[in-house]
Design brief:
Elements lengths: L10 E5 L2 E9 L2 E3 L3 E3 L2 E6 L7 E4 L21 H13 L11 E4 L5
Length: 110
């Protein structure tokens, strides 16, 4: 498990020669508009400013008997982040491109 990070410094990760950094932007939280939301991770290419990727993970809780049960926090590992980044690249995120933020909804965190 990784500790909290500031938005100024990310954790480095290299995928297929791409040097990227990632930061947990938002932990699991309650939103009156969207119910519970999973974590959100920001990914950026190192170097000149490029298109940011937001990985949005599903809420992992369950609602038996109409009451939310919040499980343990997702333990964010480099493997989970790498899998999400690879999904987003396959889904159209181009780390070298410029433009508005690319949001990718990760189907499941494993």
């Amino acid at each position: 498990p990784l500790g909290p990070l500031t938005n100024m410094h990310g954790r480095p990760i290299t995928i297929d020669g791409l040097e990227l950094t990632w930061t947990i932007l938002r932990d699991t939280q309650w939103s009156s508009r969207d119910d519970y939301q999973g974590i959100t991770i920001s990914v950026r290419k190192m170097g000149p400013e490029r298109r940011e990727l937001l990985l949005k993970y599903p809420f992992l809780g369950v609602k038996p008997n109409g009451q939310w049960h919040i499980p343990e926090k997702l333990k964010v590992t480099p493997q989970i982040v790498e899998a999400g980044i690879r999904e987003a690249i396959e889904g159209g995120w181009e780390p070298d491109s410029r433009g508005k933020v690319f949001t990718w909804f990760v189907e499941k965190a494993e």
